[in-house]
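ugh ok fine here u go
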Amino acid sequence: MEMVKNAVSWFEIPAADFERAKKFYSTIFDFEMPEMVMGPNRMGFLLCDQKAGGIGGAIVAGPWYRPSGDGTTVYLAAGEDLNVVLNRIEPAGGKIMVRKTLVAEDLGYFAMFMDSEGNRVALHSMR
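structure:
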């Protein structure tokens, strides 16, 4: 296989209760989440600059989507300092699992949380 620029091209975070998940992610990232219906699925899009090569993703409620705290972990970009987003998690209905932790000076920081749906999700920032 050839070398690809990014290992991920899109991601989807399962939602059992779409309205609850939309409110949670809109609150922690402080934006109004755009949404649409695609076939049997209702999708809410996390914001990114796709024109500049950003990789996007969505929360999705549909027949094949089941939230899980045991599956793949998605690391969401949290801007300059992930504490801004992290501090909104518990008031929005999530649970912090790992507080801001240094990975390495050149790799930045991560934190991990359970979202309103029971998914294990992580945050990343460089400072």
